[in-house]
Amino acid sequence: MSVLSFKTYCIENYAEYTGKASSEVYELFAHSGLLKMLQDDYEDLHGMGKEYLMDFFDKWFSGAVK
To answer: What is the distance between the alpha carbons of residues 35 and 30, in angstroms, rounded to a whole number?
Structure first.
């Protein structure tokens, strides 16, 4: 999976998980620094399961991860 495909996967799945529009989730990821982190830490994250990623994103937005 390419980095771009992984970012898209994360955005689309988090949008579905939260019930938000993909464009809104993209903006949230971009403004919070999560989009950059997904690129920088791609090697560590792309093999993680969907449930793990959704939990990780929730923690990121709550300030528990940075």
So the answer is: 5
Give the closest residue to 32 by CA, choosing from 6, 14, 9. Answer: 14
Structure tokens at 13: 């799945």
CA atoms within 13 A on the CB side of 17: 16
Range of the domain at 9: 3-62
Return the pLDDT at 66. 58
pTM for this predicted structure: 0.91
Residue 49 has a CB neighbour count (10 Å cut-off) of: 8
| The total number of structural domains that make up the chain | 1
